[in-house]
Amino acid sequence: xxxxxxxxxxxxxxxxIGSELVSVLxxxxxxxxxxxxxxxxxxxxxxxxxxPFEYLDVTHKDSIENIVKKYRIDTIYHMSAxxxxxxxxxxxxxxxxxxxxxxxxxxxxxxxEMTRVFVPSSIAVFSPETPRNHTxxxxxxKPRTMYGITKVTGELLSEYYVCRFGLDVRGCRYPGIISHxxxxxxxxxxxxxxxxxxxxxxxxxxxxxxxxxxxxxMYMPDxxxxxxxxxxxDFSRLKHHAGFNVNAMSFSAEELAVExxxxxxxxxxxxxxxxxxxxxxxxxxxxxxxxxxxxxxxKPRYNLSSMAEDMVKVLSQRHQEGKLNY
Length: 326
Hints:
Elements: E1 8-11, H1 16-29, E2 34-38, E3 53-55, H2 61-71, E4 75-78, H3 84-89, H4 91-111, E5 116-118, E6 121-122, H5 146-165, E7 169-170, E8 172-174, E9 176-178, H6 191-202, E10 204-207, E11 214-219, H7 220-232, E12 244-245, E13 249-252, H8 253-261, E14 268-271, H9 276-280, H10 290-296, H11 304-320
Parallel strand pairs: 1-2, 1-4, 2-3, 4-5, 5-7, 6-8, 8-12, 9-11, 10-14
Antiparallel strand pairs: 11-13
Helix pairs in contact: 1-7, 2-4, 4-5, 6-8, 6-11
């Protein structure tokens, strides 16, 4: 049986994934057992969290130790990260946050003998040398971006802590994440979120990747489900630990635009690729997530059609109510 998670800390709790993960874990384990942390100031953004909040810079190990001891943290979801496009603008900061921050989290978790740690990875670990179709679980990882380099390093570091110290560290290689709750945070796949907001508000979007750019994507409910399902799996079932391929859907930018037009017939999408196209060109078209399906029963709930229908429905309702802030 999996040991019960008693006190859970989430880093990067105000980010795209972290903010919604707080809600899922709060419902599952109770608000008193969840601690949200972030480097952002606790403003009105935290009011909906309904859990304790602490300011935390993960590059400061002492701060992590103090908070972990104060709240008797047992499990960590380490969601703090500088994403791909933002990371290329400030690679030194990306290294500091993504590598030193992760090392600090793992060290504190080891010292405090925690139950387990979730350290997410990304399809940014892949590279031009990686097979682009049905990218396998174990393959070439030679990324060309600082974000990708930090994620490969994070995977290796996490596996080291499993093998060397027996710390239970787990993680998924997330594709692009699509959500109607929180805005994008500077990633290459941000267009797949922006396009919905612009379609609903203005019926027009200028896409920063080519129309034939095909990338793996995932709807936020499945993203959260993957994290929780993996963390709740018995350790003995896992042969891999820190870098599971997970997939839900793959589509081109044009296919996404066509799907949106089914719900918003007047929508027009133009394509003007920028520097983010270079990042997208190094990533897979589709990935093979059979290891995740086999080792911990991964199975997504949403495909392109059901995701697009839900996104348009929710954002359209919010727009009608004058609550579509973007």
